[in-house]
Amino acid sequence: MATLFKGKKRTTTSLVLSMGLVFAALLYLPGMIWFDNQTMDSFFRWWVVHLWVEGVWELIMGGILAFLLIKITGVDREVIEKWLYVIVGLTFISGILGTGHHYYYIGVGKVWLIIGGIFSALEPLAFLGMALFALAMYRKGEKKHPNKMALNWTLGTAIVSFVGAGLLGMAHTLPQVNMYTHGTLVTAMHGHLAFWGAYGMIVLSIISYTMPNMTGRKLYETTTGALAFWLSNIGILGMTVAFGVAGVAQVYLERKVGMDFGDVQKEIQVHFFVLICCATMFTTGIICYIYEFIKYGRPTDEALELTT
Amino acid sequence: MLSKSQARAFFFGGTIITFVIFLGLSWDSLSNEVPKKTHVENLTPQVVHGKHIWEKNNCMGCHTILGEGAYYAPELTKVYERRGEGYIKAALMSPVPWAPRGRKMVKYALSEQDANDVVAFFKWIGETDLNGFPPKPDLK
Ligand SMILES: [Fe+2]
User: Fold this and answer.
1) pTM value?
2) How far, in Å, is the centroid of ligand 1 from the Cα of B91?
3) How far apart, in Å, are the Cα atoms of A210 and each of A68, A76, A151, B62, B107?
C-alpha cells in the first residue's frame, strides 16, 4: 500500500491490483465464522473461495498481466488500461452472481440454479477477453522486449487460464451437468488446470520478468528455462486429461449405473497411473524453474558490460 | 469507440449492481430458505456435537459431504440412507483402519457415544432438501 501512495502516478493498473489485494484479505473473514448448520458453513465458504478465485484474484491477475503487457509489448498504457477495465468489469459482472454455481445442491433455494447457471455461463467471457487481449497486444506491440521467457509465461498464463478456468469450468457449470459431476474427479480436472493457469503461471511470469531486472542479469532465453515452461505445461495438460477421463468414467459408473464408490475407484485405477506419470513430468518442470531461480537469483554486473 | 472513462463506468457500475443483487438474494436464501430446507428444528445438541467431531477429525480431508471436500473417499451426504446406522458405527469404531474395499480410512476407534453423535449428524444432513442431488442412478 505504501508503495501505491508513494508512486508518482496512480495508474489504473496499480489501482486494480491494490483493490484486488485489499478485497482478497477482507473476503477471508466470512470463512472463519462457525455455524452449527453445514449448509451455512458451505454458503459462506464460497464467499471466500469463489469470490477469491473467480473475483478479486482475477483482478490481481488482470493487473499483473496488464503491467507485463505494457512492459513487454510496449503498447500504449491508455489502450491497455482501457481493456483492463472492460475485462475486470466482465469478471465481476459474471463472477459475483456466478457464485450461484456453488449453491445448486447444498440446501439453498432453486433461484440459484437459474442465477448461477446464467451468470457462470458468462464467466468464460472474462478469460476469453484476457486471452484475446494478451494476444492482440502482443501482435500490436512494436517494441519486442528481449525477455522471451517472460513473454512465453505471460501469453501462456492468458491462454491456459482461458482453457482451464474458462472452458473447462464452463464444461460442468450448468446445473443439469453439475447435478452429475458435483463432487467428482471432473471438478479436479477443471481445478488443477485453472489454478495452474491463472495463479501459478502468473507468478512465474512476473518472476521471469523481474528477476533479470533485479539481478541485472540478461537471463532471457535458456534451455533450462524453456524446459521448465514446456515440461510443466505439457505435464499438467496430461494430468488434466487423466483427471477428465477418470472423472467421466466415475460419473457414469457411480451416478448413472449406481456402483459403489470403492468399486468404481478400482475400475478407473489405470488413469491414476497416467496421472502420476504426468505429475512427475510437471514436477520436473517446476524443479528446472527453481534450479534456475536459485542459480541465477543473485545480483551480477552483467548488465553493465558493453553489449554490441 | 469505447473511451477509458466509459470502460471505468462499466466496471464500477456493473460491480455495484451485481453485488447488491447478490447480497439481496443471499439474504433471502439464508433467512427464508435455509431454515426450511435444512430442518433447523432438528439441529439437536447431539447433531451439533457430531458436526464438531466431523470437523475436528478433518473428515473432509478425504470425504465429500454436500458434494464438497476431497475425492479420495465416498460421498457421505446420504450415507445414513445408503448404509444404515450399524455400518456407519462399525466404520467409526473399528479398531483397525476401515477398508472393506481396499482404500484405507484413518483408524478413529470412536467411543460408542461419539459414534452415535456422528450418526445423528449424518441422519440430519441426509434429510436436507438438496434440489435433487445426488441423482438417482437410472441405468441399473
Ligand atoms: Fe466458482
Assistant:
1) 0.90
2) 33
3) 10, 20, 12, 39, 49
Which CATH number is B42-140 given?
A: 1.10.760.10
| Total CB pairs under 8 A between chain A and B | 156
**Cβ–Cβ gap B139/A257 under 8 Å:** yes
Contact B30 A43 (CB under 8 A): yes
Torsion of Cα atoms, B19 then B23 then B24 then B29, to 10°: 140
Cα A239 to Cα A199, A231, B44, B105, B140, distances in angstroms: 17, 12, 44, 25, 31
How many whole angstroms separate alpha carbon A271 and alpha carbon B80? 30
Nearest to residue A165, comparing CAs of A229, A231, A101, A69?
A: A101
pLDDT tens across B72-91, in order? 999 999 999 999 999 999 99
Residue among A183, A257, A262 whose CB faces B103 most closely: A262
Q: Scan residues 111-140 of A and list those with Cβ closer than 8 Å to B.
A: 111-113, 115, 119
Report CB contact under 8 Å: A93, B64.
Answer: no
* Cα–Cα distance measured from residue A188 to residue B71, given in angstroms and rounded to the nearest whole number: 8
Q: Are B29 and A109 in contact (CB under 8 A)?
A: yes
* Segment A122-141, tens digit of pLDDT: 999 999 999 998 999 888 88
